[in-house]
Amino acid sequence: MNKLSAELLKDMISWRHHIHQYPEIALDVHETAAFVASSLKSAGLEVHEGIGKTGVVGVLRMGENPERKAIALRADLDAIAIEEENDFEYRSCHANKMHACGHDGHTTMLLGAAHHLAKHGDFEGTVYFVFQPDEEYGTGAISMLKDGLFERFPAQEIYGMHNLPGLELGKIEMRTGGTMASETLFEIKVKGVGGHASSPHRINDPIIPASQIMSSIQAIVSRAVNPLEATVVSITEVLTDGARNVIPSNITIKGDSRTFSNENIAIVEKRMKEIVEGTCVAFGMDGEVSTVTEFPVSYNAEEQTEIAERAAKAVVGDKNVITGCIPKSFSEDFAFLAQEVPACYVFIGNGVEGNHGMMLHNPQYDFNDAALEIGASYWCSLVEISLG
């Protein structure tokens, strides 16, 4: 393990508690970004601020030929809009804002790695420490990309990490290929002819075909998608312009689908359109489907996952590294970064007990300070393996 000093570990706990106590959300992470930039500067890094509004990039070059290879390490800065229920000393000071996803820990682990590598790094190349705003609402990665992230900081690889409650402290898991799901939002519109509920024979009721559509699209997963490839289609909203005694003219059905391959994204969209169009034609109505893929599948590249595996084993030992883990059904805007350069995203155990085992986004969740050294050491190990 890259041995972090006791002084640095003490500082990291203090940093984490400070960031937790003063959470900020979305792209408006000005104070958090300023704190990160100041810390990076104190470690002697070259620091760039205001990327994608509030993103920060620290640059560390080492060796005789630092241009030989460059990699990027990414952490997220933002909190989420919920009220914290914890009562410890460093609980959130901001109403309806809380670090309930552990981004305070992610930021601190990457800061700790930057400080350690600046003093003790043994590699030849360049490391870009990327601190990204607004992962939760999904605009941060795109904002930084639009602001020229990889043009200004031309990394050849990028790596990410997330804590995982329920995974034992001291364990790290990963997989090659689809790691976090895509998310595609869909909206189905069924257009009939509404009117008084007493005279259904004089109208064209869209409720009947809409009901059949909702039932039929559930068969997409069971009959059009390979049963070995996880896919979910969920209807989450049904809206009408009717009333208690009025059959509506229009029905809107909204929902999302999640999967782990671009092929299945296309299959779900194609079958959904066929079902809507065919059902509406059968009832003499118009129907349409619109889809927006909010997040693509997050892919771990084979070579970068092998590097991550070696780094993790160097830190926690072979038996504590889980390869080929089950892919996660949540989505992450790290996927946009992984579309640009080869990437690997891993999960670090946050523990199973108390606040540390609480589900992410729970108002009683807390990042596990005992994971800080593990995560920072993993980053340091990864840098020295990739750039060694």
Automatic annotation (TrEMBL):
GO annotation, biological process: diaminopimelate biosynthetic process
Domain Peptidase M20 dimerisation: residue ranges: 186-278
Cofactor note: The Mn(2+) ion enhances activity.
GO molecular function, one term: aminoacylase activity
Binding, Mn(2+): C101, H103, E136, H162, H361
One Pfam family named in its UniProt record: Peptidase_M20
Protein name: N-acyl-L-amino acid amidohydrolase
EC number(s) recorded for this UniProt protein: 3.5.1.14
UniProt xrefs under PANTHER family: METALLOPEPTIDASE, PUTATIVE (AFU_ORTHOLOGUE AFUA_6G09600)-RELATED (PTHR11014:SF63), PEPTIDASE M20 FAMILY MEMBER (PTHR11014)
Gene3D superfamilies: 3.30.70.360, Zn peptidases
Enzyme class: hydrolase
Protein's organism: Vibrio tasmaniensis
Cofactor: Mn(2+)
Keywords from the named record: Hydrolase, Manganese, Metal-binding
InterPro entries, sorted: Amidohydrolase, Bact_exopeptidase_dim_dom, Peptidase_M20, Peptidase_M20_dimer
